[in-house]
Design goal:
Radius of gyration: 38 Å
Low-confidence stretches: 29-42, 63-75
Structural class: alpha+beta
Largest sheet: 6 strands, mixed
Number of domains: 5
Mean pLDDT: 87
Shape: elongated
Strand order of the largest sheet: 2-3-1-4-5-6
Number of helices: 19
CATH architecture of the largest domain: 3-Layer(aba) Sandwich
Length: 637
């Protein structure tokens, strides 16, 4: 079954709703006020089966200027447009604005329907035909069918159905292989069921009892039920009008413009790099101008930052960054419309290129070069560019930035890795790293280690985490490498024999501690002082004060002896020579042959120590499992 969304477009009271009713038997004017006033205020929906293999969903949009924003909420999800022009009035202001919107949104297929044919004679119909031909010349409707019809008499309806079927069969199918997205155009509460949202599923599929995410709120919800064209269904696919019953949210939290989507596949954004085309005849757009932004069903204010000039002229196309007043879910290739702040008229539209753009420097030519790469749409070039801009990027974030499934991003990244342009890290692969960034970090790590050794000849190496904190590569968005990337760089250098990483310490290969004669003598003096003191050790401050070295070098020598195990720190204030502690162990083992029980008083007596030394030493022996505390006494093990 092929599912196609057809949108009506045209001036108020040109017979859009009446034509949909005549085709489908469903009145798209849902609200009492619409019927009373005889105009469509909000979006209307109906569907039509054109044989076993084609089903059309109609979106009937308002024609009145005041309701164009409602029209925009519907037209973004259509595959074909029916441009409606009444025979008795021909082309009117909203006909032109609706048609401009369709062109700006990149709609490529449709037809023209001249309605109310029963109200005019043949001569007038011929005149309207000529005006239509002139109006659509040079557009996507230039060679499109023009059907003359009357909703009242039924004239032309069979021909219109045939043309709709032909165009539907020719229209490309909506992508099912992309993550699910459904821009919400209505939300309400159904008694006994709870929150219900409706919209056109524009990509992917959604199934009953599956999990979805509501953007921009980021709430994870469960799908209790699905209806497709007002009938219960187990799933909905791209191209279908869909209603979804949700669990886990209050309907009052949901507004038109939000998006229901696959969980964890996207990220909200309030800043996007885009292409923007202004309509002919409008005023030039100044840098930092504020506009109304419409994309899918979303509407918000946006500020336009011109990236390649100070002014965008009528009819011209340029690169811009849009900064939205409210975040939403938008992905590359989404089409949008902008309307002037006041008076509110459509002035242009364009396409999203990047929904997570880096910061741009004014006048930087690489910005425009990068945007041209994104505009070209080549998947390989797009993934490589994003990796280069970020240095490293997690696979889910890269998928959200492209709007693709993570598996598709990974397939492209694998191809780039095979050509040594990217590196994939993790098992399974979860981090994408630009090859140039990996190389920059490799060089930077060696540079920082060299600087450390020069500044600290008495230290054997640098702790890993301290070394990682020094690796802030220039020219990339990410300030520090992730632990995964850092370890990969370190492993690469270790395998090539350039660094030695033992435990938590890293040093350049072949690098040893270099002591001057004066430092070597001081080192021996420190060790000898603690060894000679036995168990009645002095404070480290007293020992170091007797050296002829400056305090910084003396403390480094002390740390070296502690690291080598020559000295052992058993508490904040007590440091012992390892030979003294070994001798204490031997004494305790000899005492064990007489009695395993050891009191604090006994320990103080045979060691000659005060309580200040005895208690920390006993606690150390407990930790080392030489003794075990039982109450206030110890048992020698």
């Amino acid at each position: 079954m092929r599912y196609v969304i057809v949108g009506t477009a045209g001036h108020i009271d040109h017979g859009k709703s009446a034509l949909v009713l005549a085709l489908t038997g469903t009145d798209p004017d849902r609200w009492e006020e619409e019927k009373r006033r005889g105009i469509t205020i909000d979006l209307g929906f109906a569907h039509l089966d054109l044989g076993d293999d084609v089903r059309i969903g109609f979106i009937d949009v308002p024609g009145h200027e005041r309701f164009v924003k409602n029209m925009l909420a519907g037209v973004g999800g259509i595959d074909l447009v029916m441009l409606i022009i009444a025979a008795d009035e021909s082309i009117k202001p909203q006909t032109r604005e609706h048609f401009d919107i369709c062109k700006l949104l990149g709609i490529r297929r449709g037809l023209v329907v001249i309605t109310k044919s029963d109200l005019v004679d043949g001569e007038m119909l011929d005149l309207v035909r000529l005006e239509v031909q002139e109006f659509v010349a040079g557009s996507f409707l230039e060679r499109a069918p023009v059907v003359v019809a009357s909703a009242r008499t039924g004239e032309g309806l069979d021909e219109l159905r045939r043309e709709l079927r032909r165009l539907s069969v020719e229209a490309p199918s909506r992508p099912l292989d992309l993550p699910f997205r459904l821009p919400i155009d209505r939300s309400f509460v159904m008694k006994g069921f709870g929150a219900v949202v409706t919209g056109t599923t524009i990509t992917g599929t959604v199934e009953k009892e599956s999990e979805v995410e509501l953007f921009p709120l980021g709430k994870r919800l469960r799908v209790r039920g699905i209806e497709v064209y007002n009938a219960p269904a187990d799933r909905a696919i791209a191209g279908q009008r869909t209603a979804v019953n949700l669990v886990g949210v209050d309907a009052r939290q949901i507004n038109r413009g939000m998006t229901l989507a696959a969980p964890g596949a996207f990220q909200s954004t309030a800043s996007m790099d885009c292409t923007l085309t202004l309509l002919p005849g409008v005023r030039p757009l100044k840098n930092h101008a504020q506009v109304h932004f419409h994309c899918g069903t979303a509407e918000t204010l946006a500020r336009v930052i011109l990236l390649d000039g100070r002014e965008l002229k009528a009819g011209a196309t340029g690169f811009v960054q849009l900064r939205l007043s409210e975040p939403g879910l938008f992905v590359p290739d989404d089409r949008f419309i902008i309307r002037q702040l006041s008076p509110i008229v459509t002035i242009g539209g364009g396409s999203v290129l990047d929904n997570a753009p880096p910061k741009h420097r004014a006048g930087d030519p690489t910005t425009i070069e990068s945007l041209r790469v994104l505009e070209g749409g080549d998947p390989t070039a797009r993934i490589e560019l994003h990796a280069q801009q970020s240095g490293e990027v997690a696979l889910p974030a890269l998928a959200a930035r492209t709007g693709w499934k993570a598996a598709d991003v990974l397939r492209v990244a694998n191809s780039l890795e095979a050509h040594n342009r990217l590196t994939l890290l993790g098992q399974p692969a979860g981090v994408v790293v630009a090859a140039a960034h990996f190389q920059r970090l490799t060089e930077l790590l060696l540079e920082k280690l060299g600087e450390f050794h020069t500044a600290n000849p008495l230290l054997a190496g640098l702790p890993k985490e301290e070394l990682r904190s020094k690796l802030k590569a220039r020219g990339v968005a990410q300030p520090l490498p992730s632990a995964v990337l850092f370890n990969a760089v370190l492993q690469s250098l270790a395998e090539s024999g350039k660094v030695d990483a033992q435990g938590e310490m890293v040093r350049l290969s072949g690098r040893t501690i270099q002591l001057s004669a004066e430092e070597a003598a001081a080192r021996d003096q420190i060790a000898a002082a603690f060894e000679k003191a036995g168990l009645a050790v002095p404070s480290s401050r007293e020992v170091l004060a007797k050296l002829r070295l400056d305090q910084a070098r003396a403390e480094k020598l002390l740390k070296m002896l502690l690291k080598e195990g020559v000295l052992l720190r058993i508490s904040e204030d007590l440091i012992f020579h390892q030979s003294v502690l070994q001798n204490l162990r031997a004494i305790l083992q000899r005492r064990k042959t007489q009695s395993k029980l050891l009191t604090v008083a006994d320990f103080k007596e045979f060691t000659g120590l005060s309580r200040k030394y005895a208690i920390p030493l006993l606690e150390y022996l407990d930790r080392e499992r030489v003794t075990r505390r039982e109450g206030d006494d110890r048992v020698i093990l």
